[in-house]
Amino acid sequence: MNVLDSELIIxxxxxxxxxxxxxxxxxxxxxxxxxxxxxxxxxxxxxALGRLxxxxxxxxxxxxxxxxxxxxxxxxxxxxxxxxxxxxxxxGQIARIPELLAKIRAGKGPQMELSLERRGRGRHEVEDSFxxxxxxxxxxxxxxxxxAYVRIMFGCDQxxxxxxxxxxxxxEQSRPVDEILAEVRQLxxxxxxxxxxxxxxxxxxxDQPSGTRLSGLLEQCERIAxxxxxxxxxxxxxxxxSMTPDLFEAVRDLPHVMPYFHVPAxxxxxxxxxxMNRGYTVEKYRDVCxxxxxxxxxxxxxxxxxxxxxxxxxxxxxxxxxxxxxxxFKNSFIFKFSPxxxxxxxxxxxxxxxxxxxxxxxxxxxxVQNQISTEESAKFVGQEVEILVEGTSKSAMKLPVxxxxxxxxxAVSDADPTIQLTGRTPCDRIVVFDGPRSLxxxxxxxxxxxxxxxxxxxxx
Length: 460
Ligand code: SAH
Ligand code: SF4
Known about the structure:
The chain is of the alpha/beta class. The protein has three domains: 2-126, 3-Layer(aba) Sandwich (Rossmann fold), CATH 3.40.50; 139-377, pyruvate-formate lyase- activating enzyme; 384-459, no CATH class. The protein contains 16 helices and 19 strands. The strands form six sheets. A five-stranded mixed beta barrel has the order 15-16-17-19-18. Strands 1-2-3-4 form a four-stranded parallel β-sheet, with helices on both faces. A three-stranded parallel β-sheet has the order 5-8-11, covered by helices on one side. Helix 8 (177-189) packs parallel to helix 9 (214-227). The radius of gyration is 23 Å and the shape is globular. Residues 117-131 and 396-412 have low confidence and may be disordered. Residues 156, 158-160, 163, 165-166, 200-201, 239 line the site of iron/sulfur cluster.
């Protein structure tokens, strides 16, 4: 979500005549796009702001802004903790950043723009004015010009008891199908070969007027792929409760839709799942995974887990370990529970699992997952896989958006030396291999010769 928001902000500012600075030191405007999912993410921003204090004193004309979920959550507190911040903008108002920057530059003082302050607990009480902000896409603002995220849903209404997202990203809303398809077409025109449809619960996608669900949307994206260079369509994140056979069948039947499902389980214990308000049992979760693999054999399933949530016993945790061992996820993202003020868990229960126990469970679950990932990766050795080549292994691994770094393939020439390239399999496994730069942005068959838990190595 934040990668996409950053791209959109960069694109807007480029159109306003800004250019990307080479470093923070040289920048006139510094914007932090923040996350508030865990305390750690917020602490990092406050320390980064702290490091800018002296520089702002020396250069008062530098504009410092905080945007995104932490801006929404902490709002005016940010000005208290870092009085030299000029701009605080919630995730629903990023379209207004250019106008707010102009006001600050005109000497109108610090600006704050939020629209989700009056939020009910456990449900959304007010109709928020959330700007639908996916304007013209701009390839040079993307980390990789061949791959782009497309927002299909805003917000979330699940209200998992540990989670801050519904409070900072607003109510769940599906974007109209036509708007999404127009954006996909625009991205393809800009050279995109892969689009990932994103939302907090994409399997709940429902365009009310047309009745289109995620499976129908994938079908319409497939129609675009049939007649254009669009090669791959992905979607994240799915919620087990809204994954129905039509979705699995769409993935099975549509050749451009990749066999990859990110379905966070969060825990393998029914009492913890209940406390988390996830709305499913572990039996239901296992059944969803079974249906996925029955319909789409060989599909990759990945998951998220929280360890050390309020009241988690050793037995609860062992049930999570069992689930990971049984499903054999391609990969799991494992998080130590971080209490978030404003959530139901924060209000109702003590954060009672000691830090060292959280750490131990985190490491134990990681070790189990790593072992599985190692074994699953090794199965690819000797196989031929089709990969979409993303870039040189250095450029593809680079994460922070800086300077657009658009790496378009140069025309094929005799002098196209072999370099180390990277790309992904349909199941989203990273493959590193040697080949000419001209392959970047294209599909390529590669034979896998070696593997590590999270990377495959191959040759053309
Ligand atoms: N909408 C997605 C998840 C978005 S948040 C879903 O429901 O699956 C990404 C992940 O962060 C979650 O899946 C969860 O594992 C983790 N997370 C959310 N809140 C957290 C918290 N308070 N502490 C630790 N991890 C958390
Ligand atoms: Fe958070 Fe749950 Fe919504 Fe995911 S589904 S964003 S975990 S509230």
